[in-house]
Design brief:
Elements lengths: L1 E4 L2 E3 L2 H13 L10 H30 L9 H12 L9 E3 L5 H22 L16 H10 L4 E4 L6 E4 L5 H13 L6 H18 L1 H4 L8 H18 L5
Antiparallel strand pairs: 1-2, 3-5, 4-5
Helix pairs in contact: 1-2, 3-4, 3-5, 3-7, 4-7, 6-9, 7-9
Length: 247
Amino acid sequence: MVQAGDNVLLVGIEARLTLALMEDQATGEDHVIIKPADAAAAEGTAMRIYRKWSTARLNQVVALRRGQGSEVMQAISVGLVIALLVNRSDTEGRAVAKWDHWTVDGKQVDSAIFAGAEAFAAEVSRNRSSRAAGEQRLKGGYALSEARRRLADRLVVTPDSKNDGELLYIPAQRRQEVITFLGRDLARRPKLTESVLASAFDLLVTAYRGAAGQLAHRGMIFERSTDTRSLKEELLRRFSEAQGSPL
């Protein structure tokens, strides 16, 4: 039992089930006889409740990874993943480095990637307020943590053998899955239209290209305009299909 204040006690499942059994069997006598079958049924009820509680978090994680969670993926996290796709970071050789944000290299790489992600998020959510600089980071930032929580092994982080850091990329064989996931997740935003999504994508690409110099001299820029156009078309198609109105 747990004290809840004001002379109120909270009892556990077993106590509540026992009270229910006793109330059902009450005959006005000084004692109550509980049948073994009734006790077994109550025990089964307790086990089902405990199982439901213990698997609730697991089911929530599974739903998130299927794009079926109660909340949509944060717009900045979606923008971050799209920026990686635009950069064609789909192999370890074309990965983006995750360095400490307090270093010069780390800040510049982070700002280059987040330039596009921020532009995308602002257009999708219609929120023009800028996030704190400390949040715009790959290492330790919530945007990447949210993306990894949703995409799991479709978003790879691996040690960087050449530098003190990690490499971030989307495996080429999982690229289609990621685009489909993003299209479906974006389609769950009731106010988001195809035209706004197209505009958000274009703003992302413009901001990304404007900051690309910070990636270029580190050998981390791999965008190709033809691939970017194909990516936009595919994302819009997946979005439209998920909304129930295929192009």
